[in-house]
Every structure is written in structure tokens, then in C-alpha cells.
């Protein structure tokens, strides 16, 4: 096996082992921060940055779930409608008054939100795996279902959290701080850390990447492919529920337009973060970075005068394409 | 599974594995009929047969991927019904698949331990798995970084990773399904050593191959299948490769390679000068004459395929190409097709045919313009063309509405050949024309190739099988690491000569 052993001198400098597609989003984020500093001197202020990151919390948390779904080779288009659906049901439950104590009511509401999120995810997962329907189509269907149900529940209007006691109790979940750091930011990092642990350190995470990389291989290796896939959708549902739990105290109300287009923003964050849409590779921290980038671009446009903020959608669209081009050119090396 | 590659102790004198009247039907078609044979501990038992003879089905039955329709399977004399591949593995029967079944995005170690990760509680233990994978690969005589991403390894190295993965399971019977199809002579040599090792440790090896010389070298016994039936089980020592071929085909195979008289002086049709394909081939120069069959030999990864893909415009390349003396450029395949050059990919299933489409659609795809009337595709003319191709190229298909993917490998190759001939090309480039094809069909393909040359077309054959290059080519160019390093012609054409050029070392060292 002479020629195999001496195939090439294995250059294993540490910097050559770094996957550039994994680093690119962080470089992009750093460049954006520099750009922002030039655009407006207030940009780099702690207040502004904390504010921007806080606002990215919903998309960032949802996108952590999307990283699981996408890296296993799936796709979930229903997350935006799912936010509206889960949040509406949770508010309606809290309004129902079946539990007298506001604190208990809040706790039960939180549990219910997580349960509904997981159930919605499970439904998506079972439709794609047991029903053998392409994830794009399956979740396109549930996207309509969740959105329609929300519109029906709200009768086209808004669903508002009525109990002022619960509101007061619940408010700090979005507006509170711990040691000066807003709670949503802490939640982002906790969720991302859990996600990274599961994806990189556990057997399940390994199986997610294997299924996304080559389904047949995974099946021949004795991995329960359908179960692995289904669980990614459940994880996605749980992440949506967590995002809802931050969303409800912010406005205390939902409507038929809650979470509109969030699925596209979440997918953008995942892709900008370096995760391949074809599956097999997943970068949790890249995804978080991608979510920050999206929000920061909007913030810079708002703070500077040279681009109209009405162009935000166009800029975000361009970011996706640029991110893909960069990824491809880096992967070719 | 922390104690790799330790065969469980063998029991008494019953054969390790035995089949009695084993049969398998798919719908009304019985693909395996009453197979009765046995495998003993410490032997290498080769299974040979033409494509469609039922070898793969038999292996899948033994490894638990399929369940028999009739008959039984005995392990240590006890009848068992395997519920699946995992069950077979637990009983020590493991299968090395013909195709590479690895997750391309995961590392070597992650693949080796996929589905049976070493864990401590909640997390996986990457360090232990990297160590284990490094050792498992080293046991096969190779040195591969366990942290390397599999998708970036050469095919041969992936094959080794796959074998390492399988051998990590405590095994008593190891089934190899054409493991050397994509390996070069040197890698094959190393693999045969690994197989001898497995045998020496008391396990049994079931070995499927089309390379009869290899079978002769390594096997203790040989079982021949034909049309789903067991024809014979013999001692390998009593059989010569030609005898094996006779048993497989069921008739005399006097001569595999047809006669071919190279024209004495021929005009140059194609001239390639200083042609480079970035990362794969450097400054290649060669000439191709009218009616000539030119061979390209070399190790896997020498850049032969990439050079050809560069010439026909499938990859960016630099250099001069002259067709009938006129300089030409092929920025894309369309351009080279129009110039009358066709390229038949080595990857029939991936790049040559639409497996999920019917035969007619595949046949006319490249020359669809000729089958259009008005705005519509003329189905009748397509059907007529298919009839003609089926006759001309002897495509064996029960029904004409089959999908390309339902044909055997040999018939797929014939269909691909027929598809490209629709374009009436002057130059035909065929990459690995007989990979994974049985001996009977091989013979036919060689006849087609020689016939093409006889009609005045020029043929380039890229192949890793040196005997076939020597058998049908007028001239053979040898590539090594992206460069053309030599040429052998006439009586000089021998495997030794080619190996020396292809590896850059003397044969004794190479082995």
C-alpha cells in the first residue's frame, strides 16, 4: 500500500484545517461592525448593540431549530405561521382564567406553549417521514394551516393578553436584564449552547449530520432515519415555542400577521451562517451570527442616510446570494 | 464493540454458513433458485457469475438485507431467519458493499463509527473514535487522518475507510462485493493481503469479483452462478480463469478480444497539444488517428478522466486542440458534440443515463433534435430507433417500457453506447467501458469498439483494466499524477511495462 501511505505529505498546519465556510460569517459580522461604526458613531454604543441583538432574538432562536432541520436534509417553511399559532393559543389559554394564581397560570402557559410547539413540529415531522411528502410541500401545507387557524381564532383581529397581573409578571422575560444583559440575549446564547451541544457532542447530533449527508448510508448504518428526521422538526417546534415565549411579553398581543416571513429570515440566517441547504453540515454559532448580521444590516440602514430603509428586503436578498457565492468559492479551494 | 476484529470462536465441524434450497423471487420472477452451498471457517470462497446471475441477491440474503422466499440459511448448523443487516452483523456476518456507502460530510472516524459511536453517557467520545479509526485503517496498511472529511478522499481511500468500518464489527464471515472494481493494481494487491489476513485469523471470506485472475489467486473454493442457479462449486486450484469463464457463460469463451488490424499509416484526426486541466492534468500532448483505438492507462486519480472531460468541454482546460488540422475550442459539451466527439462517462448511473426514465427517452436524449416534428417529439420514430438500437447493440430487456435503472449494468452500458452513437460521432471516448460488467457482455462491448474503429471512427478507451487495454488498443498512453509519462505499442504492450510507467517504480517494489 506504498502509494496510499505516501499519497501526499499530510500538511496539517492548524490554520489549514479550519473550515473557511465556518469562519466566513464571523468575518462578515466583524466587517459589518466596522462599516456600522463608520456609518454612524452611535452604532457601536453598548445600548445600540444590545438593542439590535435583543431584536434578533426571535429569528436567532428559531434559526437554531432550522439548523437542525436543514442539516438533516429537511426544510421547515411553517415556522412563521407556527409562531402566530402557538402564541395565539398561549395567550388565549392565559386569558381563559382556568387557573386563579397568575404565577401558576404563567407557568402553565409556558408549559403549554412548549407542548404545542413540540406537537406542531411532530406533525411536520410525521407528515414528511411517515407520509413521505417532500418537506417543502409538507411544511408549505402546514404553513397555510397554522396561519389559517390563527386568523380564524382571532377572527381576523388581534388576540391580546388581558390579565394585567400576568403581564406585569411576564414583562421581564423580554424587557428584563440580568447583570445588565437583556434576558432575550441570554436566552439566545443558552439555546445556541444547548443546540451546539446536541448537534456536535451527542450521538443524536452525529446521526442528524449523517442523515443529511447521505440518507442511504445512515440507513445501512442502522440509524433510524425517520425518527432522527422527525425529532429535528420537534426541536424546531420547541425553538419556535421559546421564541413565542419571548414574543408574547413584548407586545402582549398577536394577530394574523404575526411572524409573517419569519421562515424566510430564519432560513437566511442558517444559510448565511454557513450551513449547506443540501444537508450534512450544520453550524449553530454561524446561524446565530447570521441572525445578528440580518438585524445589524437593518440597523445600519436605519442609522445611516445613504440607503433607504425601504430597500431592506432587497439588501437581505442580496446577502443570501452573496453568502452562497462566498461559500461556494471557499468550498472549491 | 470496543474489541475490534476479533472473530468469535468457531463451533464444531458444521460449516460456518450453509444454505439449503435458498430461493428468492421478486414478484413472479425467481432470481435465485435452490442455492445450496456452504462456507467454512478459514476459507476464501469466491462467487462468480455474469451480471444478473444472482450474486448480489445471494449476498443480500446472506447479509440480511433481503429475506429468502424459500429455503433456509444455517449458521453453525442451526437454521436462522435473519431479520435485517443489524441481526446479521450481530451474528458476525458483515458485508462490504460494492458502492461506497459513507457520509461525505463526516470525518473518517465519524464514518467508521457511524451508528455505533463510542460514548460516555450523553456525549460521544471523539478522541477514542479517532484513535480507533486510525488504528483500524493502519491495520489495512494505510495511513489516513481520522479527522479528514471523507468527501475529500480519493475513491480508493474511501473504499479502505469503508472496509475498516466493516472489519471493526466482530466478524466471522466477511462478504466482499466486487471490492477491487475501483482499485488500482497496487491497492488490489494490498486488499488481497487484508483478505488473507482475515482468513488467517480463522474467519471466512466470501468474495465476489469479475476479475477471474484475482479469484484464481486468492480463493480456496469457487462457486459459479448462472441465471440464478448454482452451476458448480470447485476447488480454485482445479480451475483456470478460462474454465471459470466457460462455467459462467455456459459456452466456450475461446477469445475475449476480437481481432483488430491496426491500419498501417493513418491520417491524424485529433491532435491535442500542451493541454492542461487545472489541478488534474498538465501539458498533455497526443495524436489520435483515423480508425485508431488509443488506450489511456494509469492509476485511479492519475487524471485520465479529468483530461478527457477537459478536452470535451466538461471542465475548464487550457491548450490547443486540432481537429483535422484546424484549431478548435470546446467551451462546453455541446460544442464538442457538434464537432463529432462523444464522451461516455465512467459514471454511467450518475452522468450517463437518466435511471428513472424509460429506454426511449434515454436513447434519444442527446440527439433529440432529430426526433422532433413540429414542436412535438415524434414518439413513433423514437420507438423505431429504440427497436433498432435494441437489435444493433443487443440490449437485453424483457419489455421496452422498462426504466433505464431496471437494466443490468451491462445493458445500461450498451444503452449508453447506443445513445451516443445516435450522434454519429467521428471520435468516441469511452471511460471504463466494462467496469462492473460481466464477461459475456464485455466480449460484446469489445466487439462494438473494434467495429467502430473498423468503420473509420477513432476511439479513445480509458481503463484501469490493463488486460482489456492490451487486448483491444493499437497504442496505450500511460498517465501518472496528471502527466502522460509514456507510450507502449505493438509487442511492447504488457502489464509490467504499464505498471512501471503508471507507478514510477519497478514492479517488484510496487508489489
From TrEMBL, chain A:
Lipid bilayer topology: Multi-pass membrane protein
InterPro entries: ABC_transp_permease
Cell compartment(s), UniProt: Cell membrane
A GO molecular-function descriptor: transmembrane transporter activity
Pfam families in alphabetical order: BPD_transp_2 (PF02653)
Keywords, in A-Z order: Cell membrane, Membrane, Transmembrane, Transmembrane helix
TM region(s), chain numbering: 20-40, 52-70, 77-97, 103-123, 135-153, 173-200, 230-248, 284-304, 310-326
The keyword Membrane belongs to this UniProt entry's keyword annotation: yes
Protein name: ABC transporter permease
Organism: Manganibacter manganicus
Automatic annotation (TrEMBL), chain B:
Claim: Nucleotide-binding is one of the keywords in the record: yes
Subcellular location(s) of the protein: Cell membrane
GO CC annotation: plasma membrane
Keywords on record: ATP-binding, Cell membrane, Membrane, Nucleotide-binding, Repeat, Sugar transport, Translocase, Transport
Example GO molecular function: ATP hydrolysis activity
Matches recorded under CDD domains: ABC_Carb_Monos_I, ABC_Carb_Monos_II
Taxonomic superkingdom: Bacteria
Metal-binding keyword on record: no
Family: Belongs to the ABC transporter superfamily.
PANTHER family noted in UniProt: CARBOHYDRATE TRANSPORT ATP-BINDING PROTEIN MG119-RELATED (PTHR43790), GALACTOFURANOSE TRANSPORTER ATP-BINDING PROTEIN YTFR (PTHR43790:SF9)
Protein name: ABC transporter ATP-binding protein
Lineage: Bacteria, Pseudomonadati, Pseudomonadota, Alphaproteobacteria, Hyphomicrobiales
